[in-house]
Automatic annotation (TrEMBL):
Also involved in hydrogenase metallocenter assembly, probably by participating in the nickel insertion step. This function in hydrogenase biosynthesis requires chaperone activity and the presence of the metal-binding domain, but not PPIase activity. It holds the Pfam family FKBP_C. The lineage of its organism: Bacteria, Pseudomonadati, Pseudomonadota, Gammaproteobacteria, Alteromonadales. This is Peptidyl-prolyl cis-trans isomerase. It is an enzyme of class 5 (isomerase). InterPro entries: PPIase_dom_sf, PPIase_FKBP_dom. Residues 6-71 form the PPIase FKBP-type domain. The keyword DNA-binding does not apply. Keywords: Chaperone, Cytoplasm, Isomerase, Rotamase.
Amino acid sequence: MTIAKDKIVQLNYTLRDEQGEVLESNEGQTPIAYLHGHNNMMVGIEKALEGKAEGDSFSVTLPATETYGERLADSEQRVSVKHLQGAKVWKPGMVAVINTDQGQRQVTVVKVGKFMVTVDTNHPLAGRELTFDLTVAGVRDATEEELSHGHAHGDGGHHH
């Protein structure tokens, strides 16, 4: 079965920066799962996976516009320190998670005050050309429930 719209795709990945350094990987772990063609995955990754099949392994280098986006100027915001998740003590350069109307998002701490922090709302990897080593671990038809919910369920997907 090949990857196309309305298929559940399970994959393992290794993310590398411009120098080839590994930034993140789920190799040897449960594959992530997503519903293809429903804006649940980076545009460049979806395009690269289209038409691939279970067992396919390949690398793709993508521009920022197809992954985490370009860095936006003037993207700093002041937020209450109580909204930051991921540590008890914050220092500039640390990455935090905050909840937004669009779900959780990573931000980078720029300046720390007693009650407020200034964060850069650009994703920490925005503006960078990134290489993804991808292995398709599985492809299957989405269930009616997954299609109505707009995301994958089960191992590597959403649990509710």
